[in-house]
Amino acid sequence: MLGAIEAGGTKFVLAAGPAPDRILARHTIRTRDPGTTLAEAAEWLAAQGGVSALGIGSFGPVELDRLSPKWGFITNTPKPGWADCDIAGWLGQALGVPVGFDTDVNAAALAEHAAAGGTAGGALAYLTIGTGIGGGLVIGGQPVHGIAHPEIGHIYPRRHPLDTDFSGVCPAHGDCLEGLASGPAIIARWGKSLSELPADHPGHAIIADYVAQACHTLFASVAVEEVVIGGGVAQTPGLVERIAARTRALDNGYLPSGTRHAVIRPRLGGDAGITGALMLAEAALKA
Fold first, then answer.
1. pTM here?
2. Which of 79, 225, 250, 251 has its CA 20 to 30 A from that of 47?
3. Is residue 256 predicted with pLDDT exceeding 80?
4. What are phi and psi of 7, to 5 degrees?
């Protein structure tokens, strides 16, 4: 039996099953302080008859360097109480099992790549647009790790001409992608979520433009074939289609493989993250 956690700033999604595509039980708990949340997660997983390995896809930033003494830690997150939290170590010790650990978006990218049959030219990106903006990359079937993990939400897009006065909400960068196009940025600017704005509101085009710039950057810089768009903001009717159209316009026919580039919704819907966490557990069991 494999155990999995999709650890988010608002909720933890838990699952158990014999394989990533066979979830037998799932449960959701509210993200509170680390001690309470991790203990509740471990208790539920232990009650599933025991798990042989655990996979965690976590909100970040996180430490993914296996040589670091802080591998498996959530590091300098602004989430109160969670900075410097040894999430992988604590849960692995509590359950007595090996742990596979990555970002929540890398986990989702892994699952979406598998759901595509391992195609997508061997390269796929997953962007989540919600409370924050995060991005995961899978190239050659493996999640991308450098000195850390991709921080696609913190690139600086060009400002939209109808959005020059908003300073952005990112506490570190102000008007980075997350600071301009995340759920809190939308509410700070217009007082409503994107889905609550009228269909003809300029906010739809502004947000689509910012996310499309990120998509084009991914196509041009790391040669992914697909960008999968998930997250709460992405549920806004028509937004993903707007992003896809704007991405094509930004490319202007330049990239030679442009006809193969696709901006799509998750094949796995809301299960991409937890399925990817189960894949991390499976890999940890085989390691």
1. 0.92
2. 79
3. no
4. -90, 110
